[in-house]
Each structure stands twice: as C-alpha cells, then as structure tokens.
Design a protein that fits this description.
Shape: globular
Radius of gyration: 20 Å
Helix content: over 70%
Largest sheet: none
CATH superfamily: Amino acid/polyamine transporter I
Structural class: mainly alpha
Strand content: under 5%
Number of domains: 1
CATH architecture: Up-down Bundle
Number of helices: 17
CATH topology: Amino acid/polyamine transporter I
CATH class: Mainly Alpha
Number of strands: 0
Distance between the termini: 58 Å
C-alpha cells in the first residue's frame, strides 16, 4: 500500500533554523572560505536529525514535550526548579534577542523592495506575527509556514542554480574535513544556527498536534521520522545553496562580503535585475518563519517546564509568546543595538544546547515515559557523540563571550 508523507512539524524546525542568522552566516562562510566549510553544514544537519528524531519520538510515543518530560522525570526539590529557571531564562532572553533579528531581517528585505523605511515594516512584521500566533489555530499556522518555506526554498535553490557552482568543489567541501585559518568561529556559527536548542521543545509539542493520541501507531512514528528526515534535509540543502552561491560569486572572484544584504546587489551581473527581488523574497520568508517559530518554541518550553496548559489559546501560553514578540519588535523598531542581550543570548545558547542535549538523552532512556521506545545503543552513541561535540563548542563559546579566549 502506498504510504502518504505528511509533512508539517519537521518543516517548523526547518522554518526555525533557516532565519536571517543562517542566511547571513552561510553567505559570509561561502564568501570568505569558499566551499571548504560545507562539511560543517553536513555535520550540523546530521546532528539536528539525531536530536530532532528523539524529540519527535518523545512527542509521538510519550505524548509530552521536553519541558513536561523533564518535569515528570526529575523530582529533586532543588534540581527541578533550578533547571526550570535556567531553561526559562535562557530560552526567554535568547529568543527575545533572536526575535529582534528575525523581525529586522524580514523588515529590511521588504524595505529594499519598497519606499517604506525598515522601521515601518518592523511594525507590520511584528503585527503579522502577533496576529498569526494569536489565532491559536495550528493548521493555518502550519500551512502558512509551509508556504513560506516553499517560497524560501524556491528562491535560494533557483539562485544557486543560476550561478552554476562547481560540482567538484561542492563534492570536495562535503567530504574533505578542512578548517582554513580563521574559520573556527564560522564553523561554530554554522553549527549554532542549525542545531537550535528551542527546536527540541517545538518539535516534541508540534508532533502531538499533528498526530493526536487516536492516531498513535508504529506507522505514525515512521511518518514523523520521514517528516523530520525530509524537512531537515531540505533545510540543510538550503544552507548549502546559500553557501555555494556566495562561494561561487564572491570567494571565487575575490570579492569581500560583509553581510547577506549585499549579496543581492552583487549578484546582479550574474543573475540580472531579478537578483534583488529573489534575495529579498528569500530573506523575508526566512525572517518571518523564524519570527513565528521562535516565540512559539519559547512558549512551549516555558509552559511545559512549569506544568501549564500547552494549548495555543491558553492565557499563559499567549502571555509567553506575546512577551517575546513585543520585546523583539520594540528592539527592532527603536533601532537599538542590545549588545548585552545578544551576548546573553549567545552565552545562553552555548550553555543551553549541551544542557538540553544531556536532558534529552536522559529523558529518552526513561522507560516510564517511552516503554520499549527508549533509546537503543545506536541512538545513545550518536546522541552522546553530539553531546560531547556541542559541549566542547559551548565551553569555547562561553570563554569567548567572557573574553577569556
């Protein structure tokens, strides 16, 4: 019998990590180091697939989000509230700072195509994000994000095909583990913009809505895994497309690139006048999708760890995401450069990713939650390897944020 592929929750993960930060990071990586760092994208995608498969399994089989699972599995009177505090502060502060970048990225893209200033578009994007989340309807929200991901995918893949990158250079970048001088921080940035801590909360909660308890079966779990594999692989392909475009048009010609916005102008000799429209459309879609998913994930994380209702229409759920959207919109509108908030967000993510990876591995070995669907040797080995790598990177990032290295 033909099996239907039902995409949705996995595309939310893709929508979350392909934001303005990823577009900028991949563009700069390609422009500065050519195709040499493609292997870092491959590692990032594999690590994301490993962790998000666990998150999806937790949601489908355990019928709970990561926050709820930690609340159930950890009963220590000091450890549980301490962990809750770290997660809420880290996810909340980090996502508020990232929300500013998401909204500003989408606004700058629209400002480039119109006569209105970016500050005006900030209010439009912030208002649209607020409206979509306030609706509390998962299906229309999912459909909107899928549409934006399709637009984003079409734009970046079309742009990459037009510049005709070297296939031999792409192959070498994939399979040759090299780190050119000065590229270590860029490697960390590529991993950090793909393996996103809050996606673990978002994914585990979203699959429960997509596949309710009445739909529970082994076939459902296979469908969730297929959704994750296809969607996250698509996200990785988009990152590769952006990086190879920059490598072909800037690195190969020795042209410096300081940010993603400059790419549209300098692509015009190769792509024509459509370059501006193409790249702005992709950047807008990337910004809006991340602007929607970041507050949504923060809400799932907070209400889950505190034991509140996870309904999209509940008062506490709306209070959390509304705070993230309003703070992000305000920071973007007033044109401030919240250095301390951004530093806090970087430090929080560097600490949160290893912490949440460890928490996820702990939860995925609890038979009381997952029964026979707990992690096996292979899943624990792969997850443990990711944990060791992101912990090492996290320690380095924390030391760098503190100015020690």
């Amino acid at each position: 019998m033909r099996r239907e592929i039902r995409l949705g929750p996995g595309l939310l993960v893709t929508a979350a990590f392909i934001g303005p930060g990823t577009v900028t990071t991949a563009s700069v990586a390609g422009a500065q180091f050519g195709f040499a760092l493609l292997w870092a994208v491959v590692f990032s995608v594999i690590a994301t697939l490993i962790l998000q498969e666990m998150a999806a399994r937790l949601g489908v089989i355990g019928r709970c989000g990561l926050g709820e699972a930690l609340r159930t599995a950890i009963q220590h009177p000091i450890l549980r509230p301490g962990l809750a505090f770290l997660i809420i502060v880290g996810i909340g502060c980090g996502n508020a700072a990232f929300e500013m970048g998401n909204i500003l990225g989408a606004a700058v893209a629209l400002a480039d195509l119109s006569s209105l200033p970016a500050s005006s578009w900030v209010l439009v994007i912030g208002g649209l994000t607020f409206f979509l989340l306030w609706s509390g309807a998962y299906a229309p929200l999912e459909h909107m994000l899928i549409l934006l991901v399709v637009i984003m995918s079409s734009v970046f893949l079309l742009t990459a095909s037009l510049v005709q990158p070297s296939l031999s250079d792409i192959h070498s970048g994939f399979f040759t583990l090299t780190m050119p001088p000065g590229s270590f921080l860029t490697v960390m940035a590529l991993i950090g913009t793909t393996v996103v801590p809050y996606n673990l909360f978002l994914h585990a909660s979203a699959v429960q809505i997509k596949w309710p308890v009445t739909d529970l079966s082994r076939q459902t779990l296979r469908a969730a895994r297929t959704d994750s594999l296809v969607s996250i692989s698509l996200g990785g392909l988009l990152t590769v497309a952006i990086l190879t475009t920059a490598a072909s048009t800037f690195f190969m010609q020795g042209i410096p690139l300081k940010n993603a916005a400059a790419m549209a102008t300098q692509l015009e000799p190769l792509v024509g006048t459509s370059a501006r429209l193409l790249f702005a459309s992709g950047l807008f879609a990337a910004g809006l999708t991340s602007a929607i998913t970041a507050p949504l994930a923060a809400a799932y994380a907070t209400v889950g760890i505190l034991g509140w209702s996870t309904s999209l229409k509940s008062r506490n759920f709306r209070l959390v995401w509304a705070s993230i959207v309003l703070i992000g919109t305000g920071l973007a509108f007033f044109g401030t450069r919240p250095i301390h908030a951004i530093l806090l967000a970087q430090a929080a993510n560097a600490f949160l990713l290893p912490l949440l990876t460890g928490c996820l591995l702990f939860v995925m070995n609890q038979k009381s939650l997952l029964g026979s669907y707990t992690n096996g040797i292979l899943a624990n080995t792969l997850g443990g390897s990711v944990f060791l790598i992101v912990t090492s990177l996290g320690i380095f990032q924390l030391l760098r944020t503190l100015g020690i290295v």
